[in-house]
């Protein structure tokens, strides 16, 4: 009786196919993560640009004379800004400006909202005795 020793130096075809299938599934997962990361970066880029546009527009609006503040809108190609002005809000002698910047991203509407308050420098409170000149700062009770 002769015993033959088998040669186990290589891989079988089945082992190679299974290894390739596992590797392919892993690579597919990595590729899908990359696509999601690119989409997330694109949204973050648009949001940052919209926030910068809103901030610049808010600075422009706040540099307007108090009496000249009014509701308005502006288009800048990719972004659309609409602002509303509410008089005597949150207190007399101030105006609250709400600025909404919107854009379209991949067929879906997106928006960014910024709200600020502008005080009338010439406003004097009708109550005399407190010495308050109608400052624009927020105060906690």
Main features:
single chain, 141 residues, 1 helix, 35% helix, alpha+beta
Would you kindly provide a written description of the structure presented here, covering whatever features stand out?
By secondary structure, the chain is α+β, with helices and mostly antiparallel strands. The protein has one domain (13-119). The protein has one helix and four strands; from the N terminus they run αββββ. The protein has one helix at residues 13-62, and strands at 72-75, 80-87, 94-105, 108-119. It has a four-stranded antiparallel sheet, covered by helices on one side. The longest helix has 50 residues, at 13-62. The protein is rod-shaped and about 120 Å long. It starts with 12 loop residues before the first helix and ends in a 22-residue tail after the last strand.
Ordered list of secondary-structure elements with their pairings:
Elements: H1 13-62, E1 72-75, E2 80-87, E3 94-105, E4 108-119
Antiparallel strand pairs: 1-2, 2-3, 3-4
Summarize the structure.
The protein is 35% helix and 26% strand.
Amino-to-carboxy terminus distance: 101 Å
Structural class: alpha+beta
Helix proportion: 25-40%
Low-confidence stretches: 128-141
Task: Tell me the Rg in angstroms.
Answer: 31 Å
Give the helices and strands as they follow along the chain. HEEEE
């Amino acid at each position: 009786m002769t015993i033959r020793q088998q040669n186990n130096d290589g891989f079988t075809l089945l082992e190679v196919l299974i290894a390739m299938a596992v590797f392919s599934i892993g690579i597919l997962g990595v590729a899908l993560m990359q696509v999601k990361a690119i989409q997330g970066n694109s949204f973050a880029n648009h949001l940052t640009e919209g926030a910068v546009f809103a901030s610049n527009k808010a600075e422009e609006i706040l540099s307007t004379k108090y009496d000249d503040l009014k509701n308005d809108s502006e288009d800048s190609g990719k972004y659309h800004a609409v602002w509303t002005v509410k008089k005597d809000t949150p207190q007399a002698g101030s105006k609250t400006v709400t600025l909404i910047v919107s854009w379209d991203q991949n067929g879906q509407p997106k928006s960014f909202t910024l709200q600020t308050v502008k005080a009338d420098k010439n406003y004097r409170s009708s109550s005399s005795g407190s010495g308050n000149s109608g400052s624009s700062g927020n105060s906690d009770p």
